[in-house]
């Protein structure tokens, strides 16, 4: 293998991910979030997370450490680990999402830690639609832009135009979402499907595949897809209803069906992303309520195909793999000399 990789995560669905060979994992105690997405966990759990992270990093001794969206953990668990590193050990790269606000509010008892980054890599591209390109620069560094990482759209000629006169609404629950989208289904979309006025295709996220199938499998006018890319799922859609996470939103906006985004209000980046995307042709952002969906649904279904074909550089995964491999090699060579 060209690299040894250790993933340190508190993901609830660690056992549901298809991990490639050669990737080691270190599971952290998952965090519990209250209704406002604030942390309700006790200090001992945070201390345990910090200890496990430190032990994993000390044992693995990585050349590169990639910190995800929130720098240095939900409450700064990485801060001390990075701060005490030896000068010759471990380069730290941050991965800010587009539209994510400064992390300072998330760490009332910790400094930002942004000054400890050695660099930033961003999964966006300044050469395409400026709506998509807002990346925080409070770290006083210009990110290395990798391009986008999202499912490539299937050409509509491949996905096929449907002959059925009944509109098809595709519902995307989001890759990391649990069952937060159920009220929209139960109160608005499923009654219309039961009346034969629409058909509904539901793509369950990784955290809710089994639950979605158990709740809605076999319902009249409803198709539950346990596993498929968002780009494939939206083929033949007359309307797409979705949350507004990074991967899901980019996959959805590459096709031409009308889109209604209901961002999770507890997630600032989803709201900011949906607000920006709502400037595009035939894209709506609604409040997080079934009533809001019911109000906009007739207009969205009647609006027709959109003129918003996004041509995005979707080679972010390949670019970042090459960039990281080069960065790690340069770092090791520099350290050895």
From the structure above, extract its key features.
single chain; 337 residues; 6-stranded parallel sheet; 4-stranded parallel sheet; 12 strands; 14% strand; globular
Textual characterization of the structure:
By secondary structure, the chain is of the alpha/beta class. It has helices at 43-60, 79-83, 156-159, 182-194, 209-216, 230-233, 246-253, 268-277, 290-302, 316-336, and strands at 5-9, 23-27, 64-67, 91-94, 119-122, 144-145, 168-172, 199-203, 222-225, 239-242, 259-261, 283-285. Helices cover 31% and strands 14% of the residues. The two termini are 24 Å apart. Helix 4 crosses helix 9 (290-302). A six-stranded parallel beta sheet has the order 9-8-7-10-11-12, with helices on both faces.
How would you summarize this macromolecular structure in one to three sentences?
The chain is an alpha/beta fold and 337 residues long. The protein has helices at residues 43-60, 79-83, 156-159, 182-194, 209-216, 230-233, 246-253, 268-277, 290-302, 316-336, and strands at 5-9, 23-27, 64-67, 91-94, 119-122, 144-145, 168-172, 199-203, 222-225, 239-242, 259-261, 283-285.
């Amino acid at each position: 293998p060209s690299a040894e990789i250790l993933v340190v995560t508190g993901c609830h669905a660690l056992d549901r991910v298809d991990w490639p060979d050669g990737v080691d994992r270190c599971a952290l105690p998952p965090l519990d979030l209250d209704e406002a997405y604030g942390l309700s966990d006790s200090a001992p759990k945070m201390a345990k997370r910090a200890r496990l992270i430190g032990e994993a990093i000390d044992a693995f001794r990585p050349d590169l450490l990639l910190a995800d969206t929130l720098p240095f953990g939900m409450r700064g668990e990485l801060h001390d680990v990075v701060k005490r590193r030896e000068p010759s050990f471990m380069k730290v790269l941050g991965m800010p999402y587009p539209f994510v606000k400064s992390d300072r509010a998330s760490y009332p008892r910790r400094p930002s830690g942004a000054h400890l980054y050695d660099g930033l890599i961003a999964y966006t591209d300044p050469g395409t639609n400026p709506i998509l390109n807002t990346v925080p620069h409070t770290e006083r560094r210009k990110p290395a832009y990798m391009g986008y990482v999202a499912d490539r759209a299937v050409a509509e000629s491949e996905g096929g135009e449907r002959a059925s006169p009944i509109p098809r609404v595709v519902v995307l629950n989001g890759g990391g979402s649990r069952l937060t989208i159920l009220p929209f289904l139960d109160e608005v979309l499923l009654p219309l499907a039961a009346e034969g006025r629409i058909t509904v295709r539901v793509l369950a996220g990784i955290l809710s595949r089994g639950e979605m199938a158990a709740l809605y499998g076999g319902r009249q006018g409803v198709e539950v897809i346990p596993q498929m890319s968002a780009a494939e799922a939206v083929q033949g859609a007359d309307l797409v209803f979705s949350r507004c996470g990074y991967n899901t939103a980019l996959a959805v906006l590459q096709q031409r069906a009308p889109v209604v985004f209901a961002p999770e209000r507890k997630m600032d980046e989803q709201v900011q992303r949906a607000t920006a995307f709502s400037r595009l042709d035939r894209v709506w952002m609604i409040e997080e309520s079934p009533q809001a969906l019911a109000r906009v649904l007739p207009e969205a279904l009647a609006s027709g195909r959109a003129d918003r074909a996004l041509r995005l550089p979707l080679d972010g995964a390949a670019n970042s793999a090459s960039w990281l491999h080069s960065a790690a090699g340069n770092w090791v060579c520099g350290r050895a000399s």
